[in-house]
Structure formats: structure tokens, C-alpha cells
Amino acid sequence: MKLKKLIAALLVIAMGMSQFSVALANKKTEAENKKQEAEENLKNKQSEINSIERQQEQLQGEINALDAELVNVMVKLSTVEEELSIKQDDLAQTKEDLEQAKKDEKDQYEAMKLRIRFMYEKGNTAMITSILESGSIADLLNRVEYVNEVYEYDRNLLTEYKETKEQVAMLEKQQEEEIQALEVKQQEFQVAQENYQATIARKQREVGDFGEKLAEAQALAARYQDTINAQNTIIAQENERERQEQERAAAAAAAAARENSSNNNSSNNGSSGGSAVGGASGGSNNAAASDSGGDKNPSYSTGVSGSSVVSYALKFVGNPYVWGGKDPNTGADCSGFTSYVYAHFGISIPSYSYSQRSVGKEVSYSNAKAGDLICYAGHVAIYMGNGQIVHAKGTAYGIVAYDNATYRPIITVRRVL
């Protein structure tokens, strides 16, 4: 009869475990499916982010090249405008010189006509009288030569004025042509400058558009990462519940077996049964102690104090959470935050939460001290002491402090100091 009761109890436990396992499996499977979907979405979004960043870099390179070309065009335009200003001043002076040359030529021409008319009106008697009144042959030759020199002088002077006027007129034409050529260059450079500025403005708008797309993609990636973290927590919780339920079932089965054994032994030999129960109880306690993870408490291997690490980490509280971010000054994710803080003290650890689970030495949570690294499923934090942590919690929270260290199941505690 007692054996039948034991079998019935075990069947009840097995049925309960089966139903509970099905419920756990459903919830766990649902969490794993959501996690897998979020991981695939995150992977695709990360590829999109990388593509956007590459396009941003390419556009920025094009903008930098255009800026350099624009500066070159502006320098050339400035040079042309300076040359044009000088040429315009020169042309203005040339026009004045030309007017003066025309006036001088006209004055000389009029003066020469007056002298010629005077000589013709006098019938050249003045010249003859001047020659006849000479006192000697030498004087006569001198006077004849003088008259010739007057004519020669007038002719040369008039020729010189005429040539000067023609040269100045040619210079004026040349300068006008040069000014026209410079004005064409000026217009070309102005058009080029406007085109470069318009192109740069358009590409800068494109960079801004990519910036918005990048921000949207990063926000989505952060939400996918939050989903993964949340599903990891659910999976870890369900695994823990499953383990606890298995332990409870195993303990219930063991208790039922012990009760049956005790009853059998009592009917045969009560004292012997007492000894067996004591031995079984001792074995169960040892197993429980082994499951708890022992009492690991390794010594520090650096001269860095945990309180210094915590104090430095607290400086970033209130700053934003940025998925993939490595600098808490501008925004970081959980692993980027922890690696940045430890790096400040010369301690290098990977910048991925999964890799941080194996750094340093393992510590039991009961022996955790300020400055230790607390690792969860898909998440990491810095232990502050007194059961509290400082960490980059998520996009909705940013970098926060004084959260309960056991707010989600702990995978491992690592001592890196």
C-alpha cells in the first residue's frame, strides 16, 4: 500500500512537472523566437548603419574636395578682380593721355597752319628780307638753315604728336580688350563659385538626410538590442525557474523515497533508519552548497581601488545610452560604458558584454565588492557595493546608478581590479 502511495505521489509530481515544463517551454520558446527575430533585425539594421556611415564618409570626402576647389576658384576670382581693377584704372589714365595727345596734336597742327598762312600771306618777303639782311655769308647760311629748321621742327613735332596719339589709341584698344577678357574670366569664376557653393549646399543637405537616417537606424538598433536584452532576461528567468522546479521535484522525489525507506527501515530496525536519514540529509546539504557556486573571493591584482572606479563611473550618470557607443561623455551602451571606465584606470577589457563575462577572476556574488563587474544575459554593470550597481541601462534610462544588483539573474561576477 505504501509503495502504491509513493508511486501515485511520484506520478502526481511528474504530471505537474510535465505541465509546468510545457508552460515554461512555451514561454521560453516564445522568448527565443523574439530574440532570434530581434537579432536578425539588429544584424540587418547594423548593415544599414554601416552603409549609411560609409555613404556619409564618401559625401564628406566629396564636400572636402569641393571646398578645396571652391577656395581655389575664389582665390582666382579675387586675383582676376584685382587685375581688373588695376586695368580699369590704367584704362582711365590712358583715356586721359589720349585726350591730351589729341589736344597737343591739334594745337601743334593749328600753330603750323598759322605759320604757313603767315608766310604765304607775306609772299615769303619776311623770309627773303631776313636772308638779304644777313651781314655775311656765314650769317646768310645760318638764316637759311634756321628757316629750314623751323619747317623741319614743325614737321617732326607734328609727326611725333600724331604717332603719340596713335600709340595711345592702340594702348587704349589693347587695354579694353584685356579688360573684356578679364571680365569674361571674372564671370566664369563667379559662375563656377556659385556652382560649387550650390553643389556643396546640396551635398551638405544629403549629409544631413543621412544623419537623420543614421539616427533613426541607431534608435531602431537600440530598441532591437533592448528587445534582445529583455528576451535574454526572460530566457534566463525561465531557465532558473526550470532549474528550481527540477530541484524541487528532485527534492520531493528524494523525500518520498526517504519516507518510504524510513518506513520500511522502521518496521525492521528503527535505529539503523535514523542513521541512514542523517547520511542522506548531509549529502543533500553538500550538493546545495556546491550548486551555490562556492565562496570565491580572489585578491586584487592592481593598485586601483574599487571606490575610485565607482566615483569615476558616477560622473557619467544622466548621460544618454547609445547603442554601440564607446564614450559615455557623448553616449555609450552597457559594455562601452564599463570598458571606458576601466580603461581610465589602465585596465583593458573587451567592449562586448558577452566577452566581458570571461575577464579577470570569478567572484561569488556574496563576496562582490565595489568596482567588480556584474554580468547578466546581454548586459553588464559595475558593482557599487551594498547590493547596488551603476550601468548604462537602456535608451529609455541612459546611464543610471543605485539600481538593485539582482534586478535580473546574474550570470557571473568578475574581479578585474
Textual characterization of the structure:
There is one protein chain. With 417 residues, this protein is of the alpha+beta class. Strand 6 and strand 7 (398-404) form a beta hairpin. The strands form two sheets. The chain has a six-stranded antiparallel sheet, sandwiched between helices. Mean pLDDT is 77; it is low at 270-293. The chain has helices at 2-121, 125-132, 137-268, 270-291, 306-314, 334-344, 353-356, and strands at 326-327, 331-332, 361-363, 373-376, 379-385, 388-394, 398-404, 410-415.
The profile of the biggest β sheet is:
6 strands, antiparallel
Order of neighbouring strands in the sheet with most strands: 3-8-4-5-6-7
Tell me the total number of β-strands: 8
Structural class by sheet pairing and helices = alpha+beta
Order of helices and strands: HHHHHEEHHEEEEEE
N/C terminus separation: 62 Å
Radius of gyration: 52 Å
**Counting H and I runs of at least 4 residues, what is the number of helices?**
7
Unreliable parts: 270-293
The backbone outline, from C-alpha atoms, is: rod-shaped
Compute the average pLDDT: 77
Proportion of residues in helical segments: over 70%
Quote the beta fraction.
5-15%
Short description:
The chain has helices spanning 2-121, 125-132, 137-268, 270-291, 306-314, 334-344, 353-356; strands at 326-327, 331-332, 361-363, 373-376, 379-385, 388-394, 398-404, 410-415.
